Amino acid sequence: MRERALLGLFASIDSPAGPIYECKYYPCHFNGQDCSFCYCPFYPCFLYRLGGELILRSGRYYWSCKKCSWIHKKEVVEEVVLYFSSIPRQILVEADWMFFNRCLQEILFGRELGKRVGNVYDLSPPNFYGLDCRDVENSSSLLIELEDFSIKKVIRVERPNDLNGGILIPEKMGSVIRGFRGSDCIECKL
Q1: Alpha-carbon distance 115 to 17, whole Å?
Q2: Residue ranges of the domains in the chain?
Q3: Which among 64, 87, 153, 179 could disulfide-bond with 145, CB atoms 3.0 to 4.6 Å apart, if both were Cys?
Q4: In terms of DSSP bridges, do strands 141-147 and 150-157 run parallel, antiparallel, or are they unpaired?
């Protein structure tokens, strides 16, 4: 899947596809969608605001993009193509998940909001950014271990301290995400 995402990125840099009406899956998200990124270069992004969510299927965790239409908007395709067109392809081929996630945050927010805390990369700040949040007494987050852009392991975390590597994201329950802002427990409406 990573290879397909890179091939799609390179093809889009050369010439964005626009809608592909003859695809048997069209429209997989909405009529008129831009199909330049059939496989998202930012997968898995772990940003709930784009419509994705963590799902468990057949004993494995996946980041589902079923409800994400962001990458299929014409103006987003143009912005992503412009962003990556100045980066040498060899760098993109060799880049890891962290590189692409930082790029995504720069495109979405104008800067990286995620923070490295020891060996953990905390994606709570970009997930909570701009949302209506309130303090709560207890909360939990999810610690994700990735291997080659695939989710290897997910651990529920009750306290933000003593984490040893991985990506920290809030836990989603319906239209609410809960997690930690520093040592405080918070809940935010999506």
Answers
A1: 34
A2: 2-109, 115-189
A3: 153
A4: antiparallel
